[in-house]
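Mods, move this if it's the wrong board.
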Amino acid sequence: MGETLRQLGELLLGSVPTIILMALLYWLYSAVVHKPLGAVLEQRHSRTEGAVEKSRADIAAAEARTAEYEQRLREARATLFRAHEARRKAALEARTAALSEARRKAQSQVQAAKSQIEKDREAAQGGLQAEAQNLAIEIMRRVLAPAGAGR
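Not the wrong board. Structure tokens:
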């Protein structure tokens, strides 16, 4: 067993330069390759995540603008509908007023025509009455007059 321990000691002593070289190589790899590569990967990841976050923010902003646009569009349509309804109501009121005025004028004309017809009837009746009296007087004069005197 002593021989085995001695061989193991020599093996360890011979492996010291290899261990030192491996440690130096590991340190150089870490300093030259691993840390810069890690930094680049971290930067790349942050840029990618930043771009994704920016895209999400842009999408959210676009959705907000779309919602605002749709709200303004609904409001504009409602305003347009109210204006259209007001114009329709005003036109209906004007039509009703014009119809009322036409009815009033027609009624006035009918009343005037009735009044004129009544006056004409009374005048005609008065004229007929006077004519009837004249005829009655003429008939009485001819009946009462001597038979041979008037002709």
